[in-house]
Write a structure and sequence with these properties.
By secondary structure, this protein is α+β, with helices and mostly antiparallel strands. It folds into four domains: 84 residues, Phosphorylase Kinase, domain 1 (2-Layer Sandwich), CATH 3.30.200; 199 residues, Orthogonal Bundle (Transferase(Phosphotransferase), domain 1); 30 residues; 147 residues, Galactose-binding domain-like (Jelly Rolls, Sandwich). 28% of the residues lie in helices and 22% in strands. The chain is built from twelve helices and 22 strands. The strands form six sheets. The chain has a six-stranded antiparallel beta sheet with strand order 1-2-3-4-6-5, with helices on one face. A hairpin with a 4-residue loop joins strand 9 and strand 10. Helix 3 runs antiparallel to helix 9 and helix 8 packs antiparallel against helix 9.
Length: 512
Amino acid sequence: MDGQGASTIGVVSTHLGTSLSGRYRLDQQIGTGGMSTVYRAFDTVLERRVAVKLMHRDMAGHPDQLERFRREARAVAQLNHPHIVQVIDAGEDENMPYIVFEYVEGETLKDRIRRFGRLPVPEAIAYAIEIAWALSGAHDRGIVHRDVKPQNVLVDEEGSAKVTDFGIARTLDQEGLTADGRVLGTTDYVSPEQALGHAVTGQSDLYSLGVVLFEMLTGDVPFHGDNQVAVAMKHVREELPDLQYRRPEASSALAAVVDRMTAKDLGTRYESTHDLIADLEDVFAIESARAGQTTGEATQVLRALPQPKRSRLPLRMRTSMRAVVALLVLTAAAAAAIAFLAADNTQRGTGVARDSPRAAPDLIAVSLGQRAADDFDPSGDDVEHPNDTFAVLDRDRASTWSTETYSTGELQKDGVGISLDAQADDGGILGRRLVVTTPTPGFTAAVYGAADGRPENLDGWTQIAAARRIGRTEPIRLPGRVSHRHYLLWITELPEDGDRVEIAELELFRAP
């Protein structure tokens, strides 16, 4: 079975019943595409089912298309991964090239979405992790898929995902064989740079995977249009619809990962599958804990999580039924702790919502009072809406702190910011993550730290996170090597076509 199409074509192929190279008997047509047709076949030598992709006879006469077809066989043959459909053989029969793959009994991920609509949140993330594992195996060998979509993901009878159809894959060190500016891929999932005909790297696959994850969670692709070009241009120009509006039970942690996967700016988007997988595993643990149980493939992925992340799951999800009594004791203790913390937060500050992206299993939220935030405008008039700074800590996205309005669209100064006082008894904390939530994404900001009193100018601060474009919910990793009491979000550029920056929430996390 192959990702080019899950349904059998109505016209019976004239090749049915024939054998390729005297070995592969073509039994049933199971998919078709612009270059080739896919058959379920029988290997008469090893007596097993296989899938055969047979290039169309008229396409075989075009040298560039023929080379592209052969390149797929060579590329995928290099990959030996449990979540990639394996190449078994390749050859030609009467000037018709073919590739033989393992036969995967099951359905495409697209068919699964059509059958069920929105998938359970942990299951959707589990499939995204398995696809990311497959892409990581390809990217590590310098191979970019360039057409990641649910039609190209097969779900076998055991529920495991396998990526297929590297038909437009290209090695990163290879010159393209297609004309400059030609868009390859499916526009429902195409990355902005691919839609514009620009260079395509592994980050393009991660964008497409982000769209696939969005579809698994919402039951629909993010953009629709009158034609493929209209859809492609929406990927270039428009932000994806708000995930939590489409799927309210999705955590803000998950929404932040999807936002970063589908960021238009390559400087904001995940740079590698390894970074993405780490965050997907974090939100998978969060969502599995919130759901209280996992089923199907999500359970298999849960078992494969690194031990530090598994250890953060509820006890009932990682122990046998013999631990039920202990679980009840822990639950009672947790309830008492929650009551205590709730009372404490009425005096100290706002506390932390359990579904936030800062709630990664390996981090601890820093409790901040509502007076812990201060404006910072050393190169201006020294004030930047100081009476509104509480809004970044009140856990209300409708309330915001904002910079002044700059009618020219530029700050016209070095920068402006807002700082947090961690109020640690020992003078500082090892900050590991700062999560920014904003209704005005696209601005540029860096993070600075100060160990003691809050410096009056930027020279007194130490930069701890490089400047980057900020998305709607942006988790910024901090090195956590030196303790700081004060943390500063330093804004240096306004959003494109914007005249101010608004911050709805700032959340700080430290190491355990």
